[in-house]
Amino acid sequence: MPAVTVTAYEYENDLLPMVCGKCGRPAEVHVARPVRFFEEREGLKTAALVGGLIFFPPLFLLIAYRYAEEIRVRVPMCETHQNDWRWRDRATYCFLMPTWTLTVLLLYGVCIMYLIKGDEENAAAAFIAVPAAIVVVALIENLVIHYGTVRLLKEDKTTDVRLRGVHADFVAAIAEERARDRVDNPKRRPIRQRDMRDDFDDEPS
């Protein structure tokens, strides 16, 4: 799957080439996409995020959307694909997350009901079903809702952002522009690519 790392310098200054990130055709608009993350020093928040994901979805949502830091990358897209993320966001935030939250809370309710009745075996089964529900949600999100879309992820220890699932022509256009700026504008290259060993890290195909 084609992928490329873009630097903070590139996305903050709108230096991404006007090539659609999804199909490789000429782009007409920039679509701002959020990338949420926690710094490495914020281990407690990360632990709470993971705990919320597994045991209490409302806590996960609260931490993820209130306390996480956010950067935005304006991704070039063509007219056909400028709304590619819209239906996916709606499906995620209006259907998948509420359904996931309700399912987990219902499973906890069933678990408590069985505990009150003294049926520890069924209570344990309901509790164990919670991680299974998370696995199902992850599969739906990755294999259905976000299948075939461009995904953004912050690189470790930097403010660079990795774009996965982009078109090979988009990767090639970035490489071409960086080659022209190699001497005059070295900030365009990701930090972990600023030596000769990493010049071919991006995946154009």
Characterise this structure.
This protein is of the alpha+beta class and 205 residues long. It has two domains: 1-82 and 150-205, no CATH class; 85-148. The chain is 50% helix and 15% strand. The chain has six helices and five strands. It has helices at residues 8-12, 43-55, 57-67, 84-117, 120-145, 168-181; strands at 3-6, 29-37, 69-77, 151-154, 161-164. A three-stranded antiparallel β-sheet has the order 1-5-4. The protein has a two-stranded antiparallel ribbon with strand order 2-3. A hairpin with a 6-residue loop joins strand 4 and strand 5. Helix 4 packs antiparallel against helix 5 (120-145). The longest helix has 34 residues, at 84-117. The radius of gyration is 21 Å and the shape is elongated. Residues 194-201 have low confidence and may be disordered.
Task: Describe the structure concisely.
By secondary structure, the chain is of the alpha+beta class. The chain is built from six helices and five strands, in the order E-H-E-H-H-E-H-H-E-E-H.
Quaternary state of the chains: single chain
Number of domains: 2
Principal-axes geometry comes out as elongated
Largest sheet: 3 strands, antiparallel
Q: How many β-strand runs?
A: 5
> How large, in whole angstroms, is the Cα Rg?
21 Å
The low-confidence parts are 194-201
Helix fraction, binned, reads 40-55%
- What structural class should be given to the helix and strand makeup? alpha+beta
Mean pLDDT: 82
The CA-CA distance between the termini, in Å, is: 7 Å
Strand order of the largest sheet: 1-5-4
